[in-house]
Amino acid sequence: MMKFSAATTRKMKMLMRLAKRSLIWISLIGLAFFISTIIHQLSGANKLPSTSSITLKQPDRASIHQDTPKKSLDLPVIIKPKISKEDYQAAEDDMKYRKSHVEDTCKRLGKTGGQLSAVTLKHIVVDDKYKYLYCYIPKVASGSWLRLLLPLTYPNISIAQSDIQHREQVRKLSDYSPEERLFRLYNYLKFTFVRNPYERFQSAFANKFTEPKIESIRKSIGPTILRRYRKNPTEESLKTGEWVQFHEFVQYLIDPRTKSFNEHWDRFTSLCDPCNVNYDIIGKYETIVRDGNYMLSRINASATFTYKPYKSAQTTFKVKKAYGKVSPADFRSLGDTFQDDFDIFEYDKTRLTNTL
């Protein structure tokens, strides 16, 4: 065995210690590099972008209710209601009161628990996109409502025609099976709009019997009215139904021989059956703009209802003039004939309008 001097031995031991330290440092550096690589790979695979790098785009109106791809982010759509907080709360309070009044009155009259008639089923418009049921009553801005609502669901629908409610695209509750009807009656928002019956009769008469372009109703009903209530009608008037007077029209409405009514003056209760359809919203013509925009906010529709404001003075003048030749007896009989409409929707049958 070779022998080394003491000095050489000390140098060799020193070199060995340095070598061990170098190996340890090299190992530590390698380990650190390895760990750093692993961490970098893991963070790269799972790293989420910061909130400042995410841009949320509001969906366009056409895509709000379309099917979204499975991988897309399904964000809630918030549409600002076109109604002030004060009006919204006032409408909310009125709807609760009106609904309660209708329920109580229907119970008192014993009209609950019945089956919906074919007339009612055909007057309830169904929208499966916005999930509402709208029972339209002619001469209560029904045309304006349908022209606003239907294009939201049917963009290509023609809204120029006066009988828009009869467009083939429009679904009615009568188009569904009994089970499908029941589901929608329980789960969809249900609404309708009403007005003072006396005002509605005057409006219907002015539209259907005095406007030159509207002949169908005048020709079908006018001759009957003239034959019954006018002394010595001309042969020409009996053919065309021209020149019917409003007081003669009232006589026709209260006559027991009149077995059925045209929808433009039929009873609210016959058209929409409020005693068996639990309407969530009962709008009134007198507050139609506020009530209309309240309804739109309830279905989250990106639309605003605009309508000529209700002018009580102008309406009073027209109604007073129309009823000027109606006898007191016929006026009382008219109120009695439509008694349920006055009671259920809380109109005073002793007054022509809210101010007269």
Automatic annotation (TrEMBL):
It is a single-pass type II membrane protein. It is found in: Golgi apparatus membrane. GO terms for molecular function: sulfotransferase activity. Its main location: Golgi. The keyword Membrane applies. Its EC number is 2.8.2.-. InterPro entries: Carb_sulfotrans_8-10, Sulfotransferase. The keyword Transmembrane applies. One of its GO terms (biological process) is carbohydrate biosynthetic process. It holds the Pfam family Sulfotransfer_2. Keywords: Carbohydrate metabolism, Glycoprotein, Golgi apparatus, Membrane, Signal-anchor, Transferase, Transmembrane, Transmembrane helix. Signal peptide: none annotated. GO terms for cellular component: Golgi membrane. It comes from the Eukaryota. PANTHER family: CARBOHYDRATE SULFOTRANSFERASE. Belongs to the sulfotransferase 2 family. This is Carbohydrate sulfotransferase. It comes from Owenia fusiformis.
